[in-house]
Amino acid sequence: MTGDDKKRATLDFGDLPTTPAPAVDPKAVKEATRAAGFRETPKAAAPATPASTGRRTRRRTGRTEQFATRLRAETLEAIYAYADRHEITLAETIERAMSALVDAESRA
């Protein structure tokens, strides 16, 4: 079939009646579904804001190495809170923490 053909292929199971199903009015279907309490699916979802998803937006930072670990909930919340207050990425938050640790170690 080419893209111009509007006719669908039919399946022959042999034991089914061969009379085609009557045409259905799309408007009648829409009215019946609304009457049954169904809602129409939105065409496009509203874009999620970074604050509502809890995730930071992506931007190019030049960081290519991956680091994954498990943290206590309070530690993770502290990292997120710091990053949000300073409007920096989580990677920048970890880099600042490491810098502070190295500085404190060198002074001791």
UniProtKB/TrEMBL annotation:
<keyword id="KW-0614">Plasmid</keyword>
<feature type="region of interest" description="Disordered">
    <location>
        <begin position="1"/>
        <end position="65"/>
    </location>
</feature>
<protein>
    <submittedName>
        <fullName>Putative Stability/partitioning determinant</fullName>
    </submittedName>
</protein>
<feature type="compositionally biased region" description="Low complexity">
    <location>
        <begin position="44"/>
        <end position="54"/>
    </location>
</feature>
<feature type="compositionally biased region" description="Basic and acidic residues">
    <location>
        <begin position="1"/>
        <end position="10"/>
    </location>
</feature>
